[in-house]
Amino acid sequence: MLASIKQYLKDFDALFFPRVCQSCGRSLVKTESCFCTICIYQLPYTKYHLDQNNKLAKQFWGRLDIASAAAFLYFNKAGKVQNMMHQLKYNNQPQVGVELGKMYGKELVKEFHYNNIEAIIPVPLHPKKFKKRGYNQSEQFAIGLSEIMKIPVYNQILYRDLEKESQTGKSRTLRFDNMEAVFKAEKPNLALNNILLVDDTITTGATLESCALVLQSIGIKKINIVGIAFTE
């Protein structure tokens, strides 16, 4: 009887608040979560985690000593991934990040390279932006990765010290100059040698470069970078 009432309430709720795909807007069936099966099949997957010399990793060559760099998806304007990222960042849909983290986590755990990671550290938001949005989209992605990979998320090690102007439209050099002194790090009580640094959308990599340098300055030797999407 109780189970029947719960199902009735779910059906009633779905009538007025239908569950839709956060990529294309189609109605979801009971077996689908966050994204429809069609979108999951059609997403532009990079497969960068299978290639240590991928295009994203090459962006850091000669600039930053990292163990690896990969992104789950390609970011294309007016495409499915842009829709997802818009829902995640601006439409109060943190579950989008969590779900994408779970999806990518299932791929990463298959690779030996990611088996010895000790912590997942998300790129932080400035407190003002966090307060406005209510959550850190990179941390939501990290939570999804953590659930599948069984690696703890540390969100207190890295933080933003200053709120800089928008990075949009800036070159890689200007972006990096703009990010100097933005990030600070607190040395953790336990020694961390191999971590996963997580961001949402990666363009020039300037933000991640700045974060990684700060983390290296507190003794973290091996840094792997992972993003939800990469803009070529």
TrEMBL record:
Domain of life: Bacteria
Entry similarity comment: Belongs to the ComF/GntX family.
Name under which the protein is recorded: ComF family protein
